[in-house]
């Protein structure tokens, strides 16, 4: 589809990644002079947003640096994508690779790398996406005189105290450059970088004051143009390819689609071809609407403007009939009537590439968009969570019934994780009736953390339940002058020397002879109790063949009989759960059984 005579440069697509609270959206807010951060759940971006920054704005903000960097910018601007995390970056893709041309990795210069930072870099490496580092929160460095302007002109001894410059260099090296070196990257402050093909540019910035924003914009625009000119080539005769960000109900328009067009030309009156897990949807485009420059696609301040033609890369609102079944994250094409079938083939293949691999058993996950679903699945997979069912949509009664059946075979599978999606009333009723755990949140990492905490609680509860079912080991001594009844049942006073004596435990003598079971225990107030621990002296009723005075007498030792399979469980699974005296009781009992059975491996 490439025709060299009509190739133009499109906007490079720039993705912003980083740890959840290192200031990704705050940085964009400073560029756009918006306040998107305060509107997000938990102050953290949960959905993919897009903002178009025209080249005129970049030149205006960075005017003092154009001569310094000798930048001759010919790109039309940049399209910045703000992601809810590095996971969403992987779902923002086009056929054959990542959607982003270049990335900004945001790192708090004071806190340094976090696990999510390292994972984001690994994903960028896997996708072969070039990136720069925005070392944010420069204003938090002790003594730093931060300004709303270029970093490069503020980074000198005339503007900064020597101690502040020293502190900056220490934090820059320890928290940014050294970790990058450990991951195999050469890196330095952008003003010192001589070969951008070998060294990562680190741009110190402050989203709070605006320092470094001109430097960041000029570096991103310059690198995109220099290294990606061939990749940024746009075939102005090619049809539009894109990704659905969100479906919205707009007054006077009905259902509309917010989308990113990453290649080609979209024209009003053409046909939109969209994929979803159930197939392909085709509809005629009624209107293409664009947000104003610097406006945030997901939450614009101003009205959208109708356009007859949209050129990539850009965010666009699309109005067309029959969009009810479209889900966010779906691939789309905008084509002429004659190109519909070839577009459908592309879409089908892209959907097959997207599908989440399911397990034979596992939990149910639901989300509001395909991108969110994939991001959630990716996070859960990292924790080795098995997924039986993964769908976009609301939680319904069928989901709960299925989760209930999963729990019957494995209690850990009786869970539904729902990201930013509704729970229908019939599902709520079903949840109350069944043993299903529902996790709801608008923050992905919080959902994963809550699920992990629940698993730990379940493990402890199941372990405790199984442990309580095992026969606790104990060794008893018949107290002198405390034989109250000789037989049927025998009643005497005993002291628990080691372990925990429970009602129902079978007892044996030192020669291995079984003598009956503990029918009843009482305390010193003659109240019935269920167990007696080490050191307690209690009256005990023994139902069985024991005749006190004949089979056992005062000062004799009795052992709780623990079945061999349970002894093995104690040693191999629950040894750490036993108190010291309980373990001593188990060890002595095992030694006795090995002697009686003439088998040194008994209980092992």
Automatic annotation (TrEMBL):
Limits of the Tr-type G domain: 9-231
Residues at which GTP binds: 18-25, 82-86, 136-139
One GO CC annotation: cytoplasm
Gene3D superfamilies from the UniProt entry: P-loop containing nucleotide triphosphate hydrolases, Translation factors, Translation initiation factor IF- 2, domain 3
One MF annotation (Gene Ontology) recorded for this entry: GTPase activity
Keywords: GTP-binding, Initiation factor, Nucleotide-binding, Protein biosynthesis
Keyword presence, Protein biosynthesis: yes
Listed SUPFAM superfamilies: Initiation factor IF2/eIF5b, domain 3, P-loop containing nucleoside triphosphate hydrolases, Translation proteins
Function (record text): Function in general translation initiation by promoting the binding of the formylmethionine-tRNA to ribosomes. Seems to function along with eIF-2.
Record family assignment: Belongs to the TRAFAC class translation factor GTPase superfamily. Classic translation factor GTPase family. IF-2 subfamily.
HAMAP family linked to this entry: IF_2_A (MF_00100_A)
Name of the protein described by the UniProt record: Probable translation initiation factor IF-2
């Amino acid at each position: 589809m490439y025709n060299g005579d009509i190739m133009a440069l499109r906007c490079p697509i720039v993705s912003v990644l980083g740890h959840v609270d290192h200031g990704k959206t705050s940085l964009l807010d400073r560029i756009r002079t918006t306040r998107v951060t305060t509107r997000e759940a938990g102050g953290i971006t949960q959905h993919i947003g897009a903002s178009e920054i025209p080249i005129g704005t970049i030149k205006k903000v960075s005017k003092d640096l154009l001569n310094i960097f000798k930048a001759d910018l010919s790109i039309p601007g940049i399209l910045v994508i703000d992601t809810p995390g590095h996971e969403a970056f992987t779902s923002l893709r086009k056929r054959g690779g990542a959607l982003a041309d270049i990335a900004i990795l945001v790192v708090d210069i004071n806190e340094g790398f976090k696990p999510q930072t390292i994972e984001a870099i690994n994903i960028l490496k896997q996708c072969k996406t070039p990136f720069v580092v925005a070392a944010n929160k420069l204003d938090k460095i002790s003594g730093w005189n931060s300004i709303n302007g270029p970093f490069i002109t503020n980074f000198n001894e005339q503007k900064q105290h020597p101690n502040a410059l020293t502190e900056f260099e220490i934090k820059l090296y320890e928290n940014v450059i050294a970790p990058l070196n450990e991951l195999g990257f050469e890196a330095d402050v952008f003003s010192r970088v001589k070969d951008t093909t070998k060294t990562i540019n680190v741009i110190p910035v402050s989203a709070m004051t605006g320092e470094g924003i001109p430097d960041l914009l000029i570096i991103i625009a310059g690198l995109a143009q220099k290294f990606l000119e061939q990749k940024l080539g746009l075939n102005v005769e090619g049809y539009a390819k894109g990704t659905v960000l969100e479906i919205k109900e707009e007054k006077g328009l009905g259902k509309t689609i917010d989308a990113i067009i990453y290649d080609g030309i979209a024209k009003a009156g053409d046909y939109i071809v969209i994929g979803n897990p159930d197939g392909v949807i085709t509809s005629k485009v009624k209107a293409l609407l664009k947000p104003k420059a610097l406006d945030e696609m997901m939450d614009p301040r101003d009205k959208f403007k109708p356009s007859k033609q949209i050129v990539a890369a850009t965010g666009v609102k699309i109005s067309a009939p029959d969009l009810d079944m479209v889900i966010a994250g779906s691939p789309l094409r905008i084509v002429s009537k004659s190109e519909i079938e070839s577009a459908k083939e592309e879409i089908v293949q892209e959907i097959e590439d997207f599908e989440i691999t399911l397990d034979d058993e596992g939990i149910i996950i639901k989300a509001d968009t395909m991108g969110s679903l994939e991001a959630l699945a990716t996070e859960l997979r990292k924790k080795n969570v098995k997924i039986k069912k993964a769908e976009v949509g609301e939680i319904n009664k069928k989901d709960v019934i299925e989760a209930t059946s999963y729990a019957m075979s494995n209690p850990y599978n009786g869970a539904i994780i729902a990201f930013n999606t509704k729970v229908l009333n019939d599902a709520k009723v079903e949840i109350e009736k069944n043993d299903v755990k529902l996790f709801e949140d608008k923050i992905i990492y919080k959902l994963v953390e809550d699920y992990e905490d629940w698993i730990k609680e379940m493990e402890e509860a199941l372990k405790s339940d199984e442990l309580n079912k095992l026969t606790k080991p104990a060794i008893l001594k018949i107290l002198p002058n405390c034989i109250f009844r000789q037989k049927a049942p025998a009643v005497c006073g005993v002291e628990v020397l080691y372990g925990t004596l429970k009602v129902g435990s079978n007892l044996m003598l030192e020669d291995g002879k079984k003598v009956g079971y503990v029918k009843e225990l009482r305390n010193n107030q003659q109240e019935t109790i269920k167990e007696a621990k080490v050191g307690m002296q209690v009256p005990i009723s023994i139902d069985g063949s024991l005749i006190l005075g004949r089979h056992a007498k005062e000062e004799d030792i009795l052992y709780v009989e623990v079945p061999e399979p349970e002894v093995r469980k104690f040693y191999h699974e629950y040894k750490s759960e036993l108190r010291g005296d309980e373990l001593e009781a188990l060890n002595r009992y095992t030694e006795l059984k090995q002697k009686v059975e003439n088998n040194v491996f008994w209980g092992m």
